[in-house]
Amino acid sequence: MSRDRDPEYAIIARSLREQILRGDFEDGRALPTEAELSATFGVSRQTVRRAFQDLVVDRLVYRVPGRGTFVRHDKPGYVRQFGSVSDLMALAEDTTLQIIEPLTRVLDAGAAERLGLSDHSVYSVHFTRRHDESVFCATSVYLPPDIGLPLMGEPELTTVGARSPFTIIGRVDTHAAIARAEQSITAEAAGLIIARELGCVVGTPVLRVDRVYFDSSDHAVELAISRFLPERYTYRINLMRSTP
Amino acid sequence: MSRDRDPEYAIIARSLREQILRGDFEDGRALPTEAELSATFGVSRQTVRRAFQDLVVDRLVYRVPGRGTFVRHDKPGYVRQFGSVSDLMALAEDTTLQIIEPLTRVLDAGAAERLGLSDHSVYSVHFTRRHDESVFCATSVYLPPDIGLPLMGEPELTTVGARSPFTIIGRVDTHAAIARAEQSITAEAAGLIIARELGCVVGTPVLRVDRVYFDSSDHAVELAISRFLPERYTYRINLMRSTP
DNA sequence: CGTTATTTGTGCGTATGTATT
DNA sequence: AAATACATACGCACAAATAAC
Question: Which residues of chain B from 116 to 175 reach within 8 Å of chain A, CB to CB?
Fold first, then answer.
């Protein structure tokens, strides 16, 4: 009956996710059992199990046969795995971006140098990123003029407050194919601006990820500096010993 | 090789994983369909779907309704030159390790769970790591009993204050060859103990890296939790779009 | 000590929907 | 239009782990 494009299990998963994030099961109490949820939502037990799968993959809960389902005591959050450039672009799949400072031309010697530009003129845009309606990341993007100028026509980038489900690097990739990226990861204390945007206290540790993207001619086409809230985000990588 | 304790879907998943890593589906060819695998393995289509779930979660394949199942061409393995298991082992080349708490048997439910152990008994050792005589990292290592017990004979691990130029994972690798590792990175505030060991103020942001190493049978053989001083250490990775 | 009830895990069969070819 | 292939959803049965008695 419901015009919901979301399948049943996704609705159940979202409902449970909200309750968990609200702290309804904080004291080690178990979540409702499969049988209970199946009754209250009026679906089969298999559908409830399908909903729990998502929560387990997100490391939001763990399940023990014979006992029940429990929220993880260690901070869960949004986990993404970035092992390749495509993984970075796939970020748009389940997150939305909201413009804080629209795309404009600015003078920034540091950013220009990291982009390998002789001039100090770069195009910059600043935005936050959400998953499940909560902000987990604030990002500043710097682009060389030849990449940034054509993007000035995109209302998603030039309108303050605009929300859209895409990645800057996805747009850049249509102009200049990305071949590789250099990435460095460190920890730092949240400053005044970042703390306000992420909704945390000044001085809170945040994860800082700097990425420089290069096209096939090995010219830098984007510098992205992101600050992540650690309790809402974990950076995950799989490492292999050898290639197939 | 396959143990009868493993469920059917795990056997199918392992079989597919081996074929994928061997490169059987490299040229964009689709994997066998659910119906085909269900016939060849003599199981229901649901069981095949359950096997594919694991591969999708591991981002080894992606599935397209109406088309089929395909291996991701940008697997983590492609970044091996820059962020691989061997890189982690090479850490010993220019750093030294100093034992803070020697290798002992402890009860730790959390560590045991992450190692996939049914029992809570694990072997644990805690140490700092130096580069150029200054500490940049404090690490806690947890090992399953069958790996940890044989290491109790190593004086470098059981003597408080002992300094030596090696990595735990290097030792573990001689007992059980490491095939892959899962790594998650986040930021946190230094607690009392970590702050003292790293020589920083309590509350300072530190980079926390959790790694779980797996052998060729996909059994966890080591959990290492490291805290890095951001001003002395930055984590760098190069990401590639495709193979060079 | 075993017994029993509860809860999750595995596996099967079926039906229907949706996207692709 | 038809066939193919994955997605969702229901039903059922039994196994295994846990906890309470």
Answer: none
